[in-house]
Write a structure and sequence with these properties.
By secondary structure, the protein is α+β, with helices and mostly antiparallel strands. It is about 30% helix and about 20% strand. Strands 9, 10, 11, 12, 14 and 15 form a 6-stranded mixed β-sheet that branches. It has a 6-stranded mixed β-sheet with strand order 30-29-26-27-28-31. Strands 13, 16, 17, 18 and 19 form a 5-stranded antiparallel β-sheet that branches. The termini are far apart.
Length: about 650
Amino acid sequence: MAVTWTRAWWRWTGGPTTRPVERVVRVDGRSRADEPGDERQAFGRWVKRPRVDGGKRRGDGCDRRSLSPTWVLAVGCPQPAGRGGRGVGVGRDASRLAGLQRRLQGIAGGLAVYDEAPDNVSSSTYSSTPSLPGCRVAPGMRADAGLPLARVTSNRVDLRALAAMDGVGRFREVLPMLMDPVAFAEAFVSGDAAGGCRVPSRGMERHRATLRSCGVASDARSRPAFAMKAFTTPKKDGRTARLVLDARPLNDAMRRPPSMDLPRLRDFIAEVERHRFAMQCDGVSYFYQFPVDASISRYFGIGMKGCDMLLNVLCMGWSWAPCIAQRASNVLVRDLGLAWVDNFLVLGGTLDEAERNVAVFRKRAQAARVEVRAEGDDALWQVRSRFVCVGVEFDLAAETQRHRLDPSWAERWVDGSGMTAVLSGRATARQFAEVFGGAVWATDILAVPRCHFAALLSFAGRLGGRMVGAAAPVWDEVVDVPPSARRELGALRKIVRENPWVVGGVPEDTGSVLWTDASSRAWAALLEAEGRFVDGRQGVFAGPDADAHINLKEMLAFAEGVVRLCWAPGAQRCRIDNAAVVGAVAKGSSSSYAANRVLSRSLRVAGRRGIVLRPDWVPSGGQLADPYTRGTSLPRFPAQLPLPRSRATPFDLF
């Protein structure tokens, strides 16, 4: 089956001027339900064109009743700005069009050349689904997902009752952003909350009735201070979508929100594994349960055709929204368990303790009028020992508590289309970002140090820097993924496919302390046990290491100490006077490619020996290995500990 390309023309209704618009391929005999899914997303947008028997076009004297729809795939050059301009296309270069032509030849169905110059076709004829691989979306454009909005709850949280439960005061600190227009206006960087921004939303008019009926939004009686672009994203069920507001104009005008108080993922897992029983539930349309004062809703406008709308609830897309939601959740689970935004986990060491905590949580949720539901098929308020929460499967019933990735999530990530594209070497920046985000999540849950994927981290850093520095990031441009990054991603993919259980708990201390330090020219590592130095090594930097940054030299000294001195399995305490090295060892990765390679070697050796490294920072004056980096020879072991040059005090931290 051959596919050839023709040129379609746009004709102004007000005059004879014609200009090239796009190249199209006709797909005969298809209904909207039969519309190809992957091809539509990959190669362009499907547009509905009139077609009549006999090949005649509208304007040829045909009866309108004889018209029947044909779905065509539009993949041409961007339309110029102005009337009918959409700013979507794949470019004109022959190589890119040739690649599209080869791909289109694999589409099942009757592909034929669609060669027409439609007359009097309005801009409303064209849909707005953006392309993905090899396509460019103009800045400021965001298309509708084409799915109906999911029905959301009309319940509203009692903010004052929730604030009364806040014994710490962290939620009361951000509550004025929902209730006090003066406090909201003071959060603007410039002090001017007049706004004036208006960005229209495309395709959102059909959701107006749904937004009204749920009380999520109402028609604006006057022009909003910020009328921003709204769009929808598919939910996990694949049949409905959620509303998101592109609140970047508002976010840029306001100061950054305070900390969310979201626990670190590793701390979250460790806290769960200290218990035996848990009850899990999540908030129903959680963000929509937080009401916004009418005087503040004018800042959360949705630019729509005909009449703008105002959001009456917490805006998904506003930078302060996650902070407000998380702090509210922390109030509900205080001293009872953990919260991860809209996921609530009530914990207990025994079944009785867990059930008592669940009863307290229910009273708090009812007093604050927070509507919750069970996760999946579980019964609400059911206490369990094995469950899935925030993408992690926990098994607290085993002799030693353990966890792993949610198997359904792991399967989707391993076999997803984004993974296939990245491993092939050519993927869009958006596809790579999604796969890389999953990689970061998987390494955290499976306790795999990210320093083992130095090339992958390095490429992600370069790509992220380019996107952040761009005036208008093009997330749908195709990027070439280096072979080294693909090899490391393939290795991680294999680990995630196996999805092994990770056993919790803290290993026993080895009873020794590793001291490592480096100067501009030398390094030293000493092992302390029972108040004496029992072993040590020192050396001089040579070759490329002699000109390395001091942080890398400190990392090299640490690696030498681990490899040469640490043999006993267990928790190995390490004393380092370089904060960058302490942070890298603690989290398992660094921002430096070279440091990641060195750290990877250390952690591989430690893993084979059953050692868990526990780094601690010490001030330079209290670093016992420092003299041996400045010309002092190592003593004969065992040796008494030298006195530090100066006594370390808490003020050294500042």
